[in-house]
Amino acid sequence: MAAAIDKLQKRCIYLQGKNVSFHIHSWGAHPNHPDNPLHKHSFFEICYVFDGTGLYVEDGQSYPLQKGVFFCSRPEKLHRIHKGKNLSLFWIGFEVDLSSSTEKGVSLFKKLSETNNILIQDAEDSPASLLLITLMKHGSTSCSTDVLNALSHSLLLSLQTLFCGAEEEENESDMSHETKGRMLVNQAQLFIRDNLNRPLSIKDVAQYLHISTRHLSRLFTHHLGVSYTAFIRQERVDAAAEMLRMTNLDIKIISEQYCFSSVHYFTRVFQEETGLTPGKYRKQASL
Question: Is a pLDDT exceeding 90 seen at residue 169?
Answer without folding.
Answer: no
